[in-house]
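Dear Dr. H.,

I hope your travels went smoothly. While you were away I took the liberty of generating a structure for the chain from your last submission, since the lab meeting agenda had it listed for discussion. I wanted you to have the full record in hand beforehand rather than looking at slides cold. The sequence, exactly as received, is reproduced here:
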Amino acid sequence: MGMGLESNMKEIRYNTRFLVQLSIFLIVLLTACGFALAYTQYSVSKDATNCRACHGDFRSSPYISLKDGQSWGDDLHDVHRNNMLTGECDTCHASGRFPVFLDSSNGGFTLDPISCIGCHGRAADATSGTSGTGVGLRQHHYRAGQTVCLSCHADSDPAAVTPVSEATLPPYYRTGDPNYPDMPSDPCNPNLTEEQYAASTLGLDNDGDNVYDMLDTDCSGVAATPGESSALALQPLLVTAFDSAGGTMTLSYESGCSSTDHNLEWGALGAVGTYGYNAQTADECGIGIGGTYVWSYPATPTDIFFLIVGNDGSAEGSLGLDSSAGERPENTGGICDFTQSLGDRCD
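The corresponding predicted structure, in token form, is as follows:
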């Protein structure tokens, strides 16, 4: 009886020692992975940890790009919020505003509650839920010498997983959403404005191979079609001069991206609701790449509307959106009409 009790006590002590050792091992493991798992948020306590350790305070202005040393002229927060999200906050933030998680949020008006990976990840890379969606971002950091993610994410090593191509759209990229008119829509960045909202000379390396945008062979087969003239509002369509005696007006406009020429569309103001375009004259075809056009406007009708549409010699781009955020129709009866192509539009 005594020997059996002593044996049992030894076994209990050994088991207890094993459990203590196992607990210590798990704590060490969780601590090691905790450093990587902490990257579920930009920083731990609004301090120089996680992403902030290298990229700095999200609210510090101006942000200086680590890749090309360019100043963004503003902080990361306001460039994201004001330039891409039109001032809306819930796309990135959850309740309480802090912490900011990289893959969860309240969600925007028409954007899923997945925060940063909505633009910096691709759903096609996901293995389960949001897991795996950020593989391109992790591999980009791995190739830059920042391998901390590898301690818990095997897909950080490019040898382990090949992400989907650069040309694959992140979940938030979209065209024609009135809630987010300035959201990027093309990860190949063909017009050099899709993913560039500040001074950076580069867009994003979405697939993590350290090759950006149209320089990536994944994008070589992507032929960008023209975008909307004056879409960036840097030079909106304006009448800058009017000569009633000579019957001319000078129009100022900005070239549509990927456009090599432009045509003028016009009609009676009373028909603007139905887009009743009038027949064009030869002078209204091929008015130039951008800048100004002196238009010999018609005597009738006395009240008119007009639009300028870009083309690349084979296809024309968008005429803009109507009040319901739908595409304005093209003038299929015009003498300088091109087939409209919106599927790969550069804007």
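Two observations you may find useful: The longest helix spans residues 2-37. The first strand starts at residue 238 and ends at 243.

With kind regards,
E. W.
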